[in-house]
Each structure stands twice: as C-alpha cells, then as structure tokens.
Design a protein that fits this description.
alpha+beta; 137 residues; three-stranded antiparallel β-sheet; globular; 2 domains; GMP Synthetase, Chain A, domain 3; three-stranded mixed β-sheet
C-alpha cells in the first residue's frame, strides 16, 4: 500500500505528495480543458506512468540478464477522445532499445514490457499501440 495525498491549489492545479518519500508533483488542467497547461495534466500522468512502468520492468529484466539498458528511451503520445466523455482514446508507445534485437533473441525485453502493471491496469477501451525499435549493432 502506498499513500498519495492530493491538495487542490485552486486555478485547476493540484499538488500530489508521495507520502513515503515526501516527493511532490503538480498537475494542471490542459489548455483545451480550461487550464494553463503549464505542467502534467492528470491524463498526462497516466501516459507517463505507462512509459515509466514499461521502462522499469524492462530494466529489471535487463539486470537479471546482465544487460546494460542505459540509454533506453520511450516516447508516449496520448490521444484524447473527440466525442463523448473526455477520456484517453489511444496511447502510442515507441520503445527505443539501445542495442540490437540479435542480443535478445528470446524477446525477453518485449515480454517484460508487456507485463507492466500499468499496461494491464488500463481499461481495455484505451487502445495501446506499442512498437519496439532496436539499435543497429
């Protein structure tokens, strides 16, 4: 169990505090939803959580195999629904792996990414388009 304390600051901004560490972050409503868009929106954090979770799980798998995954990068593009309720419609995830696919013939890193708890926690109505890009070594 992890506790997060959220305080509404006014002006469509929130401050979230991760109680175990004391780390704080701010959210702002996006420009297209009455906010200033000056920091992450709540739905941006969902997108961020997916990419960071995949990176973390891949990092665990890489460490278990003695691979250096430093330099891995993940790009997440969030698409909101244009009709009906305001919600995330699609998350496009591009994973750039810093070595050749030949170095992972069993697909361990791909499998690891797909076991990410955030990936499995998102509503199936949110399409997740995940692509892997390998370095040419």
């Amino acid at each position: 169990m992890v506790e997060i304390q959220i305080t509404y600051l006014g002006g469509l901004r929130n401050q979230a505090t991760h109680i175990p560490s004391g780390t704080k972050l701010l959210t702002d409503a996006p420009i297209d939803n009455h906010g200033k868009g000056e920091t992450f929106s709540p739905t941006d954090l969902v997108s961020t959580a997916l990419g960071c979770c995949m990176s973390t799980i891949m990092g665990i798998a890489a460490e278990q195999h003695g691979w250096d995954l430093k330099g891995l990068s993940i790009r997440v593009v969030k698409h909101m629904a244009t009709e009906g309720f305001r919600k995330i419609r699609l998350l496009e995830v591009e994973i750039h792996i810093p070595f050749s696919e030949k170095q992972d013939p069993a697909g361990i890193l791909k499998k690891a990414a797909m076991t990410c708890p955030v990936h499995h926690s998102l509503n199936p109505a949110i399409e997740q388009k995940i692509t892997f890009h390998w370095a040419e070594n």
